[in-house]
Design brief:
The chain is α+β, with helices and mostly antiparallel strands. The chain is built from 16 helices and 15 strands. The longest helix has 17 residues, at 66-82.
């Protein structure tokens, strides 16, 4: 095999002076594909390939086919190659040539990449993608239970609660949480917006408000590059969103935020905690399409390659990962359906690193150990709640447009000491989730004492045993709890 990647060809002249390298916060995302493409080229020429790729994706989303989209796809493929995503690059080059068979840069890129991979690998990997199920890891269905059967034992494994909110049907949820209702109620709420999707671990957001993100999403609907909106909820917005749900189920109420009244008394401190840790979020995704190739090994001409192109449904969602704070999680599906894939921490030896393995469409050749993984999967529908414990790998795909979910975080008997360790690391400057905050970190020391009382293994539960407020008061009088 050759030791270097083949020649990389940029197909549109470099547009200088748009952005500078190293800019950490992405600017607004205009609705002009050529402006986005120019910004992408600026980042690419500055050596920031990851940021360039996000802009190339956004430009392709806005393009309407023909030579313009073809040239953008060819450049996108080059960025994918620079990041080692060779088969994604191949798909973009072939799609570009389907749109514009005369595009010489895409022809050269496709030819060079094909020569680099070799005919067997070029064809074999594509054929494997076209025949899912020929190789696969084990994925059993996530257990589905009624709320009445939830127990402490159930918190040790993932479950889908089918009737957590029995008074809310799909039409009621759509009426109370639809995009237009959200736009009217929270137009200025700050969001992390991923116009290029969030299927790769290093994707960066642009920071805007919910109204602008929904406007951009509606104005640029595309099956090729679906977008993703993440709204980190402060206490007032959280309260407004959960009010129509009625009473939260006990397993959510006890582990989510009921303990905060005992230690995060200052509303400003509580807001910084919730937003800094992404404790509560509203998620809005789109369905989309990407191409999968099914080449015949003897297809050597561009015409034969594009004629062999087939498509399969694929959607945006969250890449495979584990949560940093080692908390448990729950997610209420509000609108649309979402596919989930979960793997317990016992499967760590087979999962590589965050974002490496697409658990819903695995590349077993690149990640052969994943074929031995034993995981769980299922589809979450409106009104259903998924629960999964701490340290579980998880990945999602949205199956409708829009797909809206409400998610929260849980401190439980099995994870509270691990959560404490991670938060103490953040207060010590780890910087993975939030910046050190002296006022918040001081308040969290009281929370740790509360958890020890509420969640002690020999206590009957949060409602039994000693009074947590007495322990917290004593700890506050002595200083840092032991």
């Amino acid at each position: 095999m050759r030791s270097a990647y083949p020649r990389l060809v940029a197909c549109v002249a470099y547009t200088a002076g748009l952005l500078v390298a190293g800019q950490s916060a992405l600017p607004d995302w205009p609705n002009d594909p050529e402006v986005l493409h120019g910004r992408a080229l600026s980042y690419a020429h500055a050596g920031d390939t990851q940021t360039a790729l996000t802009y190339f994706r956004a430009a392709c989303r806005l393009a309407t086919g023909g030579p313009l989209e073809a040239s953008f796809l060819s450049d996108l493929g080059v960025s994918e190659m620079r990041l080692g995503r060779l088969f994604d690059a191949r798909d973009h080059f072939v799609r570009a040539l389907e749109l514009d068979p005369s595009l010489d840069t895409a022809q050269m890129n496709s030819r060079d990449l094909r020569a680099y991979l070799g005919e067997e690998r070029w064809a074999r990997d594509a054929d494997a993608a076209a025949r899912p199920g020929q190789r696969r890891h084990r994925a059993t269905p996530i257990r589905r239970v009624p709320l009445a059967e939830m127990s402490t034992r159930d918190l040790d494994a993932p479950v889908i609660v089918v009737d957590a909110f029995p008074l809310l049907n799909s039409s009621t949820l759509a009426q109370r949480f639809g995009p237009e209702r959200l736009r009217r109620n929270f137009p200025r709420a700050a969001v992390d917006f991923y116009p290029q999707g969030l299927d790769l671990e290093w994707m960066r957001p642009t920071f805007t408000n919910l109204g602008s993100a929904l406007d951009w999403q509606n104005a640029t609907t595309s099956a090729n590059f679906p977008s993703y909106i993440q709204l980190n909820l402060d206490p007032p917005t959280w309260a407004a969103l959960v009010k129509p749900l009625g009473e939260l189920p006990a397993f959510i109420r006890d582990g989510d935020d009921s303990w905060m009244a005992e230690c995060l008394h200052d509303p400003a401190v509580r807001s910084r905690f919730l937003k800094g840790t992404h404790w509560h979020m509203l998620l809005i995704g789109e369905e989309g399409l990407v191409t999968a190739t099914a080449y015949h090994p003897r297809s050597t001409t561009i015409t034969q390659q594009t004629a062999a192109l087939t498509r399969r449904a694929q959607t945006t969602g969250m890449f495979s990962h584990k949560d940093t704070l080692k908390t448990a999680s729950w997610q209420l599906q509000i609108i649309g359906q979402k596919r989930w894939h979960l793997c317990s921490p016992t499967q760590d030896p087979f999962l590589y690193h965050a974002g490496d393995v697409d658990m819903l469409a695995p590349d077993y050749e690149s990640f052969p150990k994943f074929e031995s993984a034993q995981c769980e999967g299922g589809v979450l529908s409106p009104g259903e709640v998924l629960y999964y414990p701490e340290s579980y790998w998880h990945q999602t795909r949205t199956l409708d447009s829009p797909t809206i979910s409400l998610t929260g975080t849980l401190v439980t008997r099995s994870n509270h000491r691990g959560v404490r360790a991670e938060l103490e690391a953040e207060c010590g400057g780890a910087g993975r989730v939030m910046a050190p905050d002296p006022g918040l970190c001081a308040a969290l020391k009281l929370c740790y004492s509360s958890w020890e009382v509420r969640l002690a293994e020999d206590q009957p539960g949060p409602s039994g045993g000693e009074c947590a407020s007495e322990v917290i008061a004593a700890a506050a009088a002595k200083g840092e709890p032991k």
